[in-house]
Amino acid sequence: MRPLIGRLAFPMFNLFGIQVRVHFTFVLLLVWIAVLAPEMESNAGLLGLVVVGLLASVIVHEFGHALTARRYGIETREIVLTPIGGVARLDGYPQGRAELAIAAAGPLLNLGLAIVLFCGLVLAGLPPWGAGPVVDLPSALQWLLFGNVCLFLLNLLPAFPLDGGRILRSALSSFLGQERATRIATRLGMLLAALLGLAAFVPWTLGVPFNLILLLTAFFVLMGATRESSLVRMLQVLQGRRAGEAMMTRCERLAPQDTIEWAVRLLLSTTQRQFPVVDGWGRVAGEVDRQRLLDLVARCPGETPLLELMNREPLTVTEDCDLLEVLRQLQGSARALWVVRDQELRGMLTADGLSQFVEVCKRLRHRDSGAARP
Ligand SMILES: [Zn+2]
Q: Are residues 68 and 83 in the same domain?
């Protein structure tokens, strides 16, 4: 369930226990700057300093979200930097006041940085604004100030998945309800993506190449808005429900003494991808998944028993476990959760299974509300 944005990013550093990673599309930004620098008649070294400064401002913004989330008991899985800004992937789903505070913290830190730069320039007797090329330190600082003002204002646009969209949603949801508030913020996000997409082609109509950064922004905004709206709808369905309601009770099992050869045959006979290894008392002693089996079959003799090779720390939950907690774990590193009663296996939960459960619940709700009359 890890989103595309997290899969195509590479580790940079770790701060406050949070991994910061950079998305591969970041290279595009560097190419764009390399092309633009001679055109802007700027000093390449100072332009590089502005870029590093802006990158640091984006990182400060994301840590604003992450550390505020920590105050509300929500950890951050990672921070991913993209050419159009950063994403702090939270390990939880803040709502109400927490959502408002976490969303506002990022832009407010950019406002703080902008105020510090503004005061610094004014106290040094230098003009705070200027749109000229980056030729000396004051002009570099002016661009940095401009960049932070942009980060503050753009992130406050009231459209999902921008911070302003979250602020709008949490503000509206107190009197319009969560569902309508989310729908409004999502539609505004899609409208923003369409406008950005159109704006990207304005230079093209004038005979110059279209703006790649704007087009990329439109794409990320559209993806974010769609993802955010389906996540919120999923949370609404799962709220108050228990693991026992959503688990798949028919699942293939393996025993510790089963061989790799046997496990691979089972793998070929089903669409299931994760398998519990269950002992003689019905308890989950371990697990193996499709990828692990494919790796093992290339390296180990077919008659090796799974006991020696399985993951011995499978994640288990009880039937009354909250489905929001299940979703949180499945959106993290867990591929499958095993549902147990008195340590005995009762069923399994996977991201696909949970999505299917949500789809069925949504349709049932639709039918029962009378909206689907023939
Ligand atoms: Zn933000």
A: yes
Give, as residue ranges, everything with CB less than 5 Å from ion ligand 1: 106, 163
Ligand 1 center from residue 223 Cα (angstroms): 16
Is 170 in the same domain as 270? no
Give the Cα separation of 303 and 262 in Å (integer).
8
Q: Say if pTM beats, i.e. exceeds, 0.90.
A: no
Q: How far is the CA of 159 from the centre of ligand 1 (A)?
A: 12
Q: Show the domain range for 178.
A: 4-238
**Centre of ligand 1 from the C-alpha of residue 265, in Å:** 48
What one-letter code names the amino acid at 142? Answer: Q
Confidence of residue 225 (pLDDT cuts 50, 70, 90): confident
User: 111 with 177, same domain?
Assistant: yes
What's the structural domain count of the chain?
2
- Domain for residue 374, yes or no? no
Residue where one domain finishes, among candidates 205, 238, 271: 238
Q: What is the DSSP letter of 286?
A: E
- 75 C-alpha to ligand 1 centroid (Å): 16
- Domain for residue 155, yes or no? yes
Q: Which residue bears the tokens 């702090």?
A: 88
Distance 136 CA to ligand 1 centre (A): 30
Which stretch of DSSP H or E encloses residue 99? helix 96-123
CA distances from 164 to 7, 77, 104, 320 (A): 26, 22, 8, 36
Q: Are residues 228 and 261 in the same domain?
A: no
Q: How far is the CA of 35 from the centre of ligand 1 (A)?
A: 28
* 31 CA → ligand 1 middle, Å: 25
User: Which pLDDT tens digit goes with each residue over 269-325?
Assistant: 999 999 999 999 999 999 999 998 998 888 888 888 988 889 999 999 999 999 999
